[in-house]
Amino acid sequence: MTYQKISSIILLIAALSSCKKFQDFQVNPNNPTIADPALVLTTLERVAFSTVSTDASLACRQLVYTQSASNSQYYGWQRGGFSYSYISQTVKMEQEAARVGKQNYRYIGKFFRAYTIVDMTQRFGDIPYSKMMQSISNNNFTDSSATRPAYDKQEDIYLGVLNDLKIASDSLSAQQTAIGGDIIYNGNIGNWKKLINSFTLRVLMSLSKKESNTTLNIKQRFNDIVSNPAKYPLFISNDDNGRLPYYNITGNQYPYYNDNSMKTDFYLDSSFVDILQGLKDPRLFVFGQPTPASGLPANDFNAYDGLVGSAPLAYNTGKRGQGKASQINKRFAYEPVNEPSLLMGYAELQFILAEAVVRGWISSNADSLYKKGIEASLNFSDFNNTYSGTDITNYLAQPALTLQAGNEIKQIITQKYISMFMNTGGQPFFEQRRTGFPTFETAGAGILNGGKIPKRWMYPSDEYTNNATNVQNAVKAQYPGGDDINGTMWLIQ
Amino acid sequence: MKKTAFVIAFFMAFCYVGLSQNVITGIVRSGVDSSVLAGVSIVVKGMPGGTTTNMEGIYKVTAPGNATLLFSSAGYSTQEVSVDGRTKINILLSQSEKTQLNEVVVTTALGIKKQQKTLGYSVQEVNGETMSKTKTPTAMGALTGKVAGLNISNTTDLFQSPGISLRGKTPMIVIDGIPDPDADPYKVNADDIESVSVLKGTAAAALYGAAGINGAILYTTKKGRKGRLSVEVNSSTLFQTGYTVVPKVQTQYGDGDQGKYEYIDGSGNGPEGGGWIWGPKLDQKVPGTPSGYYETTQYNSPTDPNTGKLVPLPWISRGKDNIKNFFRTGLLSTNSVSASIGSDKGSFRVSASHIYQKGVVPNTGVNNSSFNIGGTYVLTPRLTMDAKINFNKEYSNNYPTTGYGPPNLLYNLLLWIGPDIDIRDLKDYWIKGKEGLQQKNYNLSWYNNPYFIANELLNGYRKNNNFGQLTFDYQLTKDLTVKFRNGFNQYAINKDYKEPYSYIAYSYISQGNYSVTNTNYFDITSDLILNYKHRFSNDFNINVTAGGANHYRNYKGAYTTTDGLTIPGFYSLTNSINALKGTSYLEERRTASLYGMVDIEALKFLYLSFTGRYDKTSTLPVAHNSYFYPSAGISAVLSDVLQLPKTVSFLKLRASWAKVNSGAVDVNNPYAHLTVYDIDQKWNNVPSLSWPGTYKSPALIPNTVQSGEYGLVLGLLNNRINIDATWFRNREYNNFANVLPSQASGYTSVLTNANVFIRKGWEFVISGTPVRTRDFKWETGINFSNNHLWLKEATQSPDGYITYTDKYSSSHLVKEGQRTDRILTWDARTPDGKAIYNNNGMQASAKYAQPFGYGAPDWFYGWQNTLSYKNFTLSFSLDGRLGGLIYSTTNQKMWWGGTSPGTANKYRDDANAGNSTYVGPGVVVTSGDVNYDSHGNILSDTRKYAANTTAVNYISFMQTTSGAMLNNYFYYKGTYLKMRELVLTYTLPSRWIKGAFSSATVSLIGNNLFILAKLPNVDPDAESDNLQTPSMRSMGINFNLKF
Questions:
Q1: N or C: which end of chain B has fewer CB within 10 A?
Q2: What SS3 class is residue B387?
Q3: How far, CA to CA in Å, does A161 sit from each of A49, A117, A196?
């Protein structure tokens, strides 16, 4: 009998001794807990530079959606979403950079923070800024000031952003340890400085209604950059564009590549077609398809017709059914690489500089800057060499294109509007909100929001659940009519 | 020691021989039909050995004249008969009845058998017999409607596991005492199941520790029996012949939009109408066309050789029966054979079975084969060994993809095909000259040809399961035994996925892909259990169990996929265009435990039970990874001590209390308590990481369920009527919850211990035998149950609200005191439920989601009946649910896309003619305003309404709103009644089969016969609408032969 006892005990010992200790299970073998900041930078870049969005084009009367009534197109949108989780990634990158002592990541992180904050504040108004990120930065999960941060005034936010951008530009250094994982500029610090400075000019221009604000001192800041190209280099060509190229690898393709909806539901807006036809702009040939009913070749301006963004859905689907509508160009759905997505391009910078000249912030030749911008845009959009260099020269030579006194801002912003078709996120919407150009047509019977173009997005519903007191205070302080899409924020007052 | 035992036994045997010994013979018959019973075991009480009846039911046994004989046979009550000097004793064995409440023995935690009357908690046992005839793809499915508190939701899709919820949560699965964390419902063959015991509450399963926090379902598989060789063959064949629920579509309008359709190139653009089914009316006579009908170009139009243009074809309804024409008759065939034999020394049983399921979708099917062998052997008089090993293989070369989307067959067959297309014309699914490269279909931007999906988009699955256990029992002293048990589960899965060229997904058109997943799993559970049993007096018995356990689990695997295929149709990883992509994973976990149980039986009617368990787990931070939890139960059989009215034959009250902790943050991820980077996308082959939005608190402690359960068992009229009622209340606290800070804090959520929930429910089982005569008997049982969950305290939220996600709706707000299964809608409605419109005539949205109803049913119920008349037995089972809302994707998409029969109306004709005539039912706000607090509660409402009068285009209206307000926003009442199964069995009279079989039955089976439901077009059995396969009726036959 004893041999059975012994064998049982041996079995038991064998069973227990083969076990790993409990401490050994406290490491997840599938995912890392620390990493080189380069790995996080790739994520940050991929997200920030992916700006291609049909929502912006629908809200800007460049495209019309035919599958159902779109809230972007009919101005019936309500709440937006915050993107603080993106800033959390920059904090993480900065922490990893501090751990390995690579300073440059810190300043690139400052740029991404500024970029995200600007994107949010121009949508909502006041947002948490000075008290944000305390949980991830300081491991503070207990104080309500950390978990439910207070909102900052938009003016203070812009001041902070401008200061941060300056620090980033001043401090980035090619002498420091090189950055890796850079899918935008391949570690070229000089190009990063160009992007940060050019972007700073965009932020300053977006504050054009605050020209006289002495705290922000916009004109001075603008001049500081433009007048010192050695210290503050700017984009000098399309090669410097802050752009994310696409690749024919699954997941790296153009975001609407093979997208079912892009193949069937998006048509050019008639007001956009009118502008392009009016200017005899060859970009029409790369933006749209000829209508099936016209039977004309693609390089004939008369081959194109649009739908009406404000008209009821039935009008648009009806016109489409008759073959009288120009679909968005097939390249957007059928080309895996198509064109890059822009965070900011050289053309936009030229339009900003031209506008600054018109506004008297700097002195230079507005018309020549503006034409450089147009030329850069035509070059950027010339998919598959659809139009030639001569076409571009001829286009620029048209008298109608030259800046006309008293009309400069309209012309500059209209060209900026055309140049941003499907490439720079919601920027044309914010430009229109600031300047009123071009006019977005709202006369049709399908329009919502009482025919008004919304001026903002309502605060996200998660803030009402998770940070109720602060968001309510922010609404009270800014919008007498409550949290509403028609409220006018400080920036555009 | 061995020798001593033998000598003692020998002398004892010799002593008996010394008394007057008689040879007793007799014949044993069934009390049901007087047929002779073979294989009945006859034992002389208090003596070793025994015998069994032969084929003629005759037995012969030697016993003293004053002895007592025990007659026992499966399915019959054990009968004790005093010999009283007789030499011929004929016996009628009566069928065992669950009504003998005092005798019922059930399997409880750790596989310990206990008398049901001693239990302080609710356990319901289902006999394996109930599964041997009615065949479902899984044994689990056969439990549907049979256990109060257990809800099985059965999907109609092939090779998908049924949903299991016990008191609203997912219980653990235990097979022969060994936990099966994988809970694969396909791995146990129903024919091998002796019984299924459902331990409903936290208290019942407290001995299993954390894994048993939600109760447990224990499978006990069949074992070899003492006696002569017995062989059983069970064979069933069921055909899925008809539809219980099949979606009904309109047949008057074809593909297109706004009444127009003209095929150009299949891209869906322009006059092709974007893929909608809102096209021109079919079968319209138009003079002057070659066919006399309206004609337009279609996908199968020939090209005119002269003009190069497509030739218009008549626009007629050819596809009225597309669904029925596409699906085929499914088949479920199950065959099993088993053999068992045993002696005094031991017994064993072997079995083999095969289940073949032919799917109703062409080119789909599942095979499931099982083999097992198990046995018991008395190694020495004190040491017994029990072992069992099972091998199971599940394999399918293709099974359909589920869920709304382009790979779903119904997506392409029901929702997005017009009746202008006859599905049979698409059977030849490649475009001529582009075989292997381009599928043929009427739309090449959105939809796939269903035949192409069925034959070319292939999900392959092969799983090998091995599981079993080895147990040693050693009798240390008369009162003290020790048990050492090792059980394991192992499986290997090989999955592959073949995606053909031109397959259309939402975001891409495939260049072909092939992916392979290989997974290996292993777990081992070792228990060492000491048991001490002592009978102090007739009034006081004690039973103490103490044990230790170790559980280890290892799961690893790898997934590899191509990025495009260079050679179309060549499915190999070497054929990738871009670099291969893949992931690998390893998950390990361990739990070490000590546990104990004390059962006390006092005063012949009072039963007390206490358990305690101490766990140490690897799935929590080391600082808080060990925890203790107790349970206590009491049962009082009052009918044994009190003088009760004569009608009351049995009365028991029971109560139990348990507190169980669990350290499993996520049962599927042992590292869920660690904050780590997520592996993000590669960009042009540059790798990236991202930090998660959820921070996992390093101070996590186990979560706890504290459960109280109270019950009553009442037997009336000699137990002709039995009532079992249970009420339970669980307090769930320290839950692992994602507490939401403002995302401006840097995290979108923090995983911590938070919130208190209360779960309450009732369970009733009423059973009885309303009619019992010599030839006819009707047994019936009805059960109904419910359970609901309330938020008691939002511990981390100062305003008492949490954001909660459950199976009924995605994240929604719940306030302290509210039920958690609230359904909310963002569509604006008046307080009395009328739709509010915008000034453009379309449904308005609300600023805050407003409550709309509840998702959980008010009650689940089931009703089982068995009627026997002579050799015939008819059993049938009905079940269903009452109340609770189910969202229907199928119905919503049918109204949206234009295939719902409700969309065929005059407004549609008007819209086709270009007129806007439809006025949505409901109101517009004419004045006033509504104010909400920050959680969407209405503070003041001064809105005044007038009827909506804005006429809109009917088609645009449907495309924008789906007509949701016409159909309660597609939340349908989940109430239904289903005829689950019907079995008519004929037992062949013994004189017919004499010499060939010991028993033979033939049964006609019907499953899923009909349903009465509020939800149209979809079977609500699955408790959700996932665009599942139509619900099929199964009919077939079963043969059961015993040798």
A1: N
A2: strand
A3: 19, 8, 12
Contact criterion met (CB < 8 Å) for A183 and B486: no
Instruction: Tell me B257's DSSP state.
Output: B
Q: What is the mean pLDDT of residues B594-602?
A: 92
- Write down the residue that tokens 């009465």 correspond to: B1012
Determine the residue of chain A that is closest to B679 in CA distance.
Answer: A31
Tell me the CA distances in angstroms from B407 to B364, B451, B898, one per residue in order. 14, 11, 20
B686·A292 Cβ contact <8 A:
no
Q: Give the pLDDT confidence score for residue B835 in this predicted structure.
A: 96
Q: Name all domains of chain B by residue range, CATH numbers in brackets.
A: 2-93 (2.60.40.1120), 822-854+904-967 (no CATH)
Identify whether the C-beta of residue A113 lies closer than 8 Å to the C-beta of residue A92.
no
Residue B418: closest CA among B317, B295, B271, B494: B317
The CA-CA-CA angle for residues A76, A78, A79, to 5°, reads 155
Record: contact A78-B845, CB cut-off 8 A: yes
Question: If residue B982 lies in a helix (H) or strand (E), which one and from where to where?
Answer: strand B976-987
Q: In Å, how far is B356's CA from the nearest CA of chain A?
A: 38
Within an 8 Å CB–CB cutoff, is residue B916 touching chain A?
A: yes
Q: Does B439 touch chain A (CB under 8 A)?
A: no
8 A C-beta contact, residue B870 and residue B775: yes
Distant-in-sequence, close-in-space partners of B27: CB < 8 Å, separation ≥ 6? B36, B53, B56, B57, B58, B59, B90, B91
With beta carbons less than 8 A apart as the criterion, state whether B360 and B246 touch. Answer: no
- Asked if A247 reaches chain B (Cβ–Cβ under 8 Å), the answer is yes
Length of chain A: 493
Return residues 429-448 of A near B (CB < 8 Å).
445-448
Judged by a CB distance cut-off of 8 A, whether residue B952 touches chain A is: yes
Cross-chain residue pair A141–B618, CB shorter than 8 Å: no
pLDDT digit string, tens, across residues B767-786 = 999 998 888 999 999 999 99
Tell me the residues of chain B between 259 and 298 that have a Cβ less than 8 Å away from chain A. 259-260, 264, 267-275
Instruction: Tally Cβ neighbours within 10 Å of residue B689.
Output: 25
Q: In this complex, is the C-beta atom of B803 within 8 Å of any C-beta atom belonging to chain A?
A: yes
- Return d(Cα A171, Cα A196) in angstroms, integer: 12
Q: Has domain A55-79+240-454 been given CATH number 3.20.20.10? A: no
| pLDDT of the residue at B34 | 65
- The upper half-sphere exposure of residue B429, i.e. CA atoms within 13 Å in the direction of its Cβ, equals 20
Report in angstroms the alpha-carbon separations of B414 from A70, A463, B736: 26, 41, 42
Q: Does A136 contact chain B (CB < 8 Å)?
A: yes
Nearest beta carbon to residue A137 from set B679, B746, B840 = B746
DSSP B638: G
- Inter-helix orientation angle A366-381/A408-419, to 10°: 20
Residues of A in contact with B910 (CB under 8 A): none
CB contact under 8 A, A461 and B848: yes
What pTM was computed for the model? 0.86
Nearest C-alpha neighbor of B449 from the set B504, B386, B384, B377: B504
Pairing outcome for strands B721-733 and B756-772: antiparallel
Window 394-413 of A, Cβ < 8 Å to B = none
| Interchain pair B935, A69: CB under 8 A | no
Size of chain B, expressed as the number of residues it contains: 1043
Out of A144, A252, A317, the one facing B257 most closely (by C-beta) is A317
For residue B705, the cross-strand partners are B660, B732
Query: Which among B264, B380, B681 has the least Cβ separation from residue A292?
Result: B264
The pLDDT tens digits of the residues spanning B432-482 come to 999 999 999 999 988 999 999 999 999 999 999 999 999 999 999 989 999
Residue B98 confidence (pLDDT): 41
Gap between the Cα atoms of B846 and B941, Å rounded: 13
